[in-house]
Design brief:
Layout lengths: L2 H79 L5 H69 L4 H22 L2
Helix pairs in contact: 1-2, 1-3, 2-3
Length: 183
């Protein structure tokens, strides 16, 4: 083996080390992308479930408000009709009607607060879902890059290494954007 062959072999070995290192780094990024995208998927589902539960509570509270209003109207109609003639019964009915009327605004306010919370929870779930989608795109870019870098290593096609690195760079930008999306 002459000096030129030795230099060429050393160059190929260092090139293969670069390709192997690039493939390993991209594989780690792909694994991290998968991990974080799954985490965001679970967070999106959890936030959506919370929004649904909060909306159900808001509906129940609105129903309680409407029931109080209905009872107040019935009691008021009974009082106005003079069907209840005994002063003690009439006073008791007026007291119950006043209690229903005075307690209903607090129930309405609570229902409105729950409805706003449900909206915030829903928006939060949408943010997590967008983050998940971006992280999935990043992971896909990393996976395609692994294939391109592997082809470069196996076939010696030098064009695939820079192309894989460029796709990895796009994946890295998407990865960071996906992580920042849900903050």
């Amino acid at each position: 083996m002459n000096r030129t062959d030795l230099t060429r072999n050393v160059g190929l070995r260092s090139g293969n080390k670069l390709v192997s290192l690039a493939a390993a780094i991209i594989a780690v990024l792909a694994a991290l992308g998968t991990l974080f995208s799954h985490h965001r998927s679970i967070a999106a589902l959890s936030a959506k479930n919370q929004a649904i539960l909060t909306q159900a509570r808001a509906s129940d509270t609105y129903n309680a408000y409407e029931a109080k209003q209905t009872r107040y109207n019935i009691y008021s109609a009974l009082i106005a009709s003079d069907l209840v003639r005994g002063p003690q019964n009439r006073a008791r009915l007026e007291s119950v009607a006043d209690n229903e009327r005075s307690s209903s605004p607090a129930v309405l306010k609570k229902a409105q607060g729950l409805e706003k919370q449900a909206g915030r929870d829903d928006e939060r779930s949408e943010t997590f879902l967008k983050s998940y989608e971006i992280l999935q795109f990043a992971t896909t870019m990393f996976e395609i890059s692994i294939v391109l870098v592997s082809i470069s290593a196996l076939a010696g096609a030098r064009l695939f290494l820079p192309l894989g690195c460029v796709l990895s760079s796009v994946g890295l930008v998407l990865f960071v954007a996906g992580l920042l999306q849900a903050r």
